[in-house]
Amino acid sequence: MEAAWAGRCLERGLMARGMAGEDAKLPRPGHDGLGGPMRRGQALFWTITGSIVAAVAIVIALVLVNSGTPPKTASSHVPSAPASASPHASPSAPVVIPETSSTSSFKYLSDLTPSGKLGELVNTGPVKISGSIYPKSISFYCNVGDPTAFPAYKLKHNARRFKATVGLAAKLPPHFQAGIVLVGNGRTLRTFSVSVLRPKIVNVNVRGIHILQLECFGSGGSPTAGFAIAVAWGNARISAGH
Questions:
Q1: Which domain holds residue 54?
Q2: Are 111 and 168 contained in the same domain?
Q3: What SS3 class is residue 70?
Q4: Distance CA 136, CA 208 (A)
Q5: 40-70 pLDDT, tens digit each
Q6: Is the distance from CB of 206 to CB of 160 less than 8 angstroms?
Q7: In this structure, are 109 and 66 located in the same domain?
Q8: How many Å apart are CA 36 and CA 27, to the nearest integer?
Q9: Quick one: which H or E segment has residue 179?
C-alpha cells in the first residue's frame, strides 16, 4: 500500500508541474502584444492631442477673421517699388493763366480771325515758352529773306492794351533770334528782339488803334537758305476798358 500511495503522489507531482508549464505560456497582464492595452492607450492619446491642435487652429482663424487682418502667406507678400523710382518721372510744366480784372476785360487773339487770307497761316492753341505753357496763344513763321505776309487784327474802339509773352520754341538753337515789330494804324508802336533763352513780356498801349499788325524777322540762318523760324505769342490778348 505504501508503494501504491507513493506512486499516486509522484503522478500528482508530475501533473502539477505540467500544468505550471502551460500557465507560463499565457500572456501576462503587463505584456503589450498586438492590440494590447498599452497600444490602445497610445492611439487614444494622439487622437486627443490632434483634436486639441485642430481646435486651437480654428480659434486662431476665427480671431483673425473677426479682427479684419488676413493671415499672411509667403506668396501674398510682394514688396512694391516707390512711384518716385521711375527714371522717366518728371514734373509737369507750369501753366500760365492771365489775371482777370473787374475794371477791364480782354479778348485773346487766338479767338479772333486775322484780316486777309492769313487765318490758315496762324496757328492757335497752347505754346511752350521758356518751360511754361501758355494755353491761349498764336504762332506763325517769320520773314527770313522772302516776302512774308503778317497777320493784322481789327480792334474795337474800347481797346486799351496789347499784352503777350513773346518767344521762340525751345527746339531751335540758342543763338537763333527774331526781331519783332508791332505796327498800329501803319506806324511802329514797339520793336524788340527775342531768342530761345530770352523771351519778352510786352504791354503796349493800343488806345485809338484800329488795326494791329504783328511782324517778325528771323536771324540765325542765311536768307537764301530760308530757315523757318516761328515766333510764339503766349496768351496774346487785347484788354478793353470803359
A1: 37-71
A2: yes
A3: coil
A4: 25
A5: 666 666 677 777 767 767 767 666 656 554 4
A6: yes
A7: no
A8: 10
A9: strand 177-184
